[in-house]
Amino acid sequence: MISFRRDSPCQSKQKCLTSKLRCTKCKVKLLNFGGTFDISAKEKRIEELKNASQNPNVWNDHSEMQKINQEMAIHQKVVEQWQSLHQKVEDSLVLAEMLLEEPDENEFLVLKEDLVKNEKFIEQLEVQSFLSGELDPNSCYLSINSGAGGTEACDWAGMIYRMYVRYAEQQGFKVEVLSMADGDEAGIKSATLSIQGPYAYGFLKAENGVHRLVRISPFDSNAKRHTSFASVFCWAEVNDDIDIEVKDEDIKVDTYRASGAGGQHINTTDSAVRITHIPSGVIVQCQNQRSQHANRDTAMKMLKAALYEKEVERRNKEKDSIESGKMANEWGSQIRSYVLHPYQMVKDHRTNFETSKTGAVLDGGLDPFIETFLKSQVTKSEGQ
């Protein structure tokens, strides 16, 4: 017969005191975050935006209404996160105080589970508090390009593409494929995604750079180990009315037939558009719309966003300029390595954070890497 050890009254009280202390620490942290996020100011701004959206003149201006809705969604997400977590912490604190008066093992297990969740949510909120950049709250564009390695690299780029789509879905972001070029035998040569959601850019900017894969090649009959590379570049989406001048003589516009999925009309007409900004070398392309005109409009918006971010970074004298995301796709320049053979490991070379859970990472589990990178950037900034 199996018997279970029961805590003495003294032990039970000590556990409850410890839990209450953890609850109190959570509450203090959360109140501090309230100041960081300036919840009252955000609530006031939400009311202003709601009133603005009731203006009949705005109803007929789709662009203006979209801007209002996007800004409102960003502020509402922060306020709702903070309020929800604040209520959960208060509930846990009340339960801890009740258990001090009348210990109950089952209720204590509930409290323990709630505390773990609360602390995790607070940690995520802490990371979000690091995103104070001008463009951090915005949606973003994410481009993926295969590097050295031929078919291997194209397959790896396809795996990277899937990883970011999964990550975006887990975060509740909306993903739209703007352009995609299939690999000759497998995977993709390149792809550009529009990722819509509050702070999408703030988080995904951490992914800029070259990603390296080491594995036994499924395309090699001799089962040899191969190294492949793919580059990732993220830039923020900005408003249509930003003050960026793009002269006709500074751009080159090419049209071509779209490849990959998209329907019969898209794949049989030269509706895809590629725009090259000659002075800066920035290249953008879009093929997901049915008409050439629509693709050109989207591509121009992407170009202006890229040029705007470049100008913001220049003004702020940031060390990581817009070109830092376009390092050579070869050995030695990678920000992260994904090793599937002879052992399992994903390691970020900027922070030295690593994990052996390669499957989880490739399924979109990027939170630990992104959070560690953002924290390191704040620490680095404070040390300067």
Structural summary, described in words:
- This protein has 384 residues and is an alpha+beta fold.
- The protein is built from eleven helices and eleven strands.
- The strands form two sheets. It has an eight-stranded mixed β-sheet with strand order 2-3-1-5-4-9-10-11. A three-stranded antiparallel β-sheet has the order 6-7-8, with helices on one face.
- Helix 1 (9-37) packs parallel to helix 5, helix 2 runs antiparallel to helix 4 (62-101) and helix 4 (62-101) runs antiparallel to helix 5 (105-129).
- It starts with 8 loop residues before the first helix and ends with a helix.
- Mean pLDDT is 81; it is low at 1-5, 261-266 and 318-327.
Could you name the key traits of this structure?
384 residues; alpha+beta; Methane Monooxygenase Hydroxylase, Chain G, domain 1; Alpha-Beta Plaits; 2 domains; 8-stranded mixed β-sheet; 3-stranded antiparallel β-sheet; 11 helices; 49% helix; globular; disordered N terminus
| DSSP helical segment count | 11
Mean pLDDT comes to 81
Give the total of beta strands: 11
**Radius of gyration of CA atoms, rounded to a whole number:** 25 Å
Task: Determine the fraction of residues in helical runs and give it as a percent range.
Answer: 40-55%
Order of strands side by side in the largest beta sheet?
2-3-1-5-4-9-10-11
Q: In percent terms, what proportion of residues is strand?
A: 15-25%
Instruction: Give the number of domains.
Output: 2
- Major beta sheet, specifics? 8 strands, mixed
Q: Please give the CATH class of the largest domain.
A: Alpha Beta
**Stretches with pLDDT under 50, minimum 5 residues:** 1-5, 261-266, 318-327
